[in-house]
Design brief:
It contains seven helices and ten strands. By secondary structure, the chain is an alpha/beta fold.
Length: about 210
């Protein structure tokens, strides 16, 4: 029988990102970053003028962060231990929405933190790549973990049999973001999330 499969996002699930992105914007660009509700488009403000940074300038800043600042990112508490436990019974794929050129940097970043699993870079919705990975692994049970509602909606549409866990591991923004309606559960703590995932792998029904 095939092994279960965990497909997990990276930023704000395995690694803290927004706190370090905000620190870099402060230090290098004199920009305040307050991502209330997870909305990046209105979260960046130039300190000198008070003007909101227009959206067409936000994405190049994110690109710059991932080009030069990934070593700032820190491991979410409990994530490493949870993946070690899950890897004993399941395959793990890290599905990260970064450009393909980021693959080597992401792999090196995670390797330095003791996380050594297959990494797939993606752009856009995650439903189709999740469906492809589940089929490729012929997994008995697949669990998907991500912090963004749009990806849970995409997976629900393209791979409805996949079990979906909404996780936002950054405590500074998690309370401002509601549970994703297309996810089966919302858990922001890996110590609790790993129990939920293992129960799904054992075939236990959801709540």
């Amino acid at each position: 029988m095939s092994r279960p499969l965990l497909i997990t996002d990276c930023d704000e699930v395995l690694l803290h990102m927004v706190r370090h992105f905000g620190a870099w914007l402060d230090e290098a660009h004199d920009i305040d970053f307050r991502p209330v509700g997870g909305a990046f488009e209105t979260a960046l403000t130039r300190r000198a003028s008070g003007d909101v940074v227009p959206s067409h300038e936000v994405w190049p800043l994110l690109d710059g962060f991932f080009r030069t600042e990934m070593e700032r990112q820190t491991l979410v508490p409990g994530a490493g231990e949870a993946l070690e436990r899950i890897a004993e019974v399941a395959d793990i794929v890290i599905l990260t929405n970064l450009q393909d050129w980021c693959h080597a940097g992401r792999a090196a970043q995670l390797d330095a933190l003791g996380i050594r699993h297959r990494i797939v870079c993606n752009q856009g919705g995650k439903g189709r790549p999740v469906a492809k990975l589940a089929a490729e692994h012929a997994s008995s049970v697949t669990v998907f973990v991500d912090d963004l509602e749009q990806h849970h909606e995409s997976v629900a549409r393209h791979a409805p049999e996949v079990l979906r866990l909404h996780m936002i591991a950054e405590p500074n923004i998690a309370p401002t973001i509601p549970a994703a309606p297309h996810a089966h559960a919302r858990i922001d703590d890996w110590a609790i999330a790993v129990e939920w995932i293992m129960a799904r792998f054992r075939g236990e029904p959801i709540g």
